[in-house]
Amino acid sequence: DKEVRAIFLRLFAQLFQGYRSCLQLIRIHAEPVIHFHKAAFLGQRGLIENDFLTKVLNGMAFAGFVSERGPPFRACDLFDELVAFEVERIKAEEGNPPKMIKHVRELAEQLFRNENPNPHIAFQKVPRPTEGSHLRVHILPFPRINECRVQELLQEGLTRSQGAPAASRGDKKCVVPAGPPVGMF
């Protein structure tokens, strides 16, 4: 599963290489608008007549991609690193399948580590019900929820999260690396 995802990650990194250089941030409104120059992107890559890439760039999925990944200050991930820093490596691996497979496996391992940051924690297995357990009549009533206790727990969690160090609060936002300009491809 992770290796197939890694292959698609590489494919889209190659396909959209240099897309950040064709983004324009318009700050007329209170909420900034991000515009992608499709013609410039296709022209600089010499792919104006490429029907497939033109349809991809005109699709709703790409519009969502631009709105989500367009802001210059957000949490970065593996895709951003591939687009910005792995250009030469991906180019060098085009004629060498063993290197390409090795890179795909490394990406798959990174994807696995991202989804399982604590691999040493074992998942608890749910035991199978015993034979005849469905014949027993021991239906327990659903417990009543104590609203005051729920509010106390919520407040306690909020105070703990406010006092927590910044690193444990989730993804840190940073300036997204632009990578090389489109003209290099």
Overview of the molecule:
This protein has 185 residues and is mainly α. It has a domain at 1-117 and 170-175. Helix content is 49%, strand content 8%. The chain is built from eight helices and four strands, in the order αββαααβααααβ. Strands 1-2 form a two-stranded antiparallel ribbon. α1 (2-15) crosses α5 (78-85) and α1 packs across α7 (97-115). The longest helix is centred in the middle third of the chain and has 19 residues, at 97-115. The radius of gyration is 24 Å and the shape is extended. The two termini are 30 Å apart.
Protein topology:
Blueprint: H1 2-15, E1 23-26, E2 33-36, H2 38-45, H3 51-58, H4 60-69, E3 73-75, H5 78-85, H6 87-93, H7 97-115, H8 147-163, E4 173-175
Antiparallel strand pairs: 1-2, 3-4
Helix pairs in contact: 1-5, 1-7
